[in-house]
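--- STAGE predict ---
source: upstream dedup step, 1 unique chain passed
mode: sequence only
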Amino acid sequence: MFVAVRLCADMSAELEAFLEPRRGSGGVRWTPPDQFHVTLAFAAAVPAHRVDGLLEALGEVADRTAPFVLTVGGAGAFPTPYAAKVLWLRADSDPLADVAGLARRSRMAFARCGIAVQGGDFVPHLTVARSRAPIEATRLVRMLDAAPSLRWLVEDVVLVESRLGERPAGRARHTDIASFPLTGPLTSPLTGPLKQTDSNN
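--- STAGE serialize ---
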């Protein structure tokens, strides 16, 4: 299971319009549009008897977190563009502490419920492609760097169940377990043209 910020419908469509004519390049597995998201916390296994406690803990996190602006744009690769297994777009909030703080609190919610969280330091990003074996991906990174910058108001997060290999080409099947509205007080005004999230997306 993982906690994530999903792209709103308009942003997802805009990103897919850029990616669709490029999906045949690079010999990588491209992320389908219905799985565009920024992961905040990930656990490889969540025992069934821990789920209710996790839902409660994540609800408390969301109640203390205000809506915030997220911007996606600028490409990169893990571990490096020269031996890449993951291609991504950077995700930044205004300020960055908003998304990083939400990720930290989400991870702590897992830990308080006795659930081990995977991953090292939080690097906010949206995965757009994966490769089973490391590839030289500098050309793909340059191509993705031209993707349009996406900016929208994040008003909720979702807990998602991921089941590996249940979609074509070995992709994971994602099922939303619960959505948590961000209802904490705003500490600064939100500025600039924004798209609101679509909770049905």
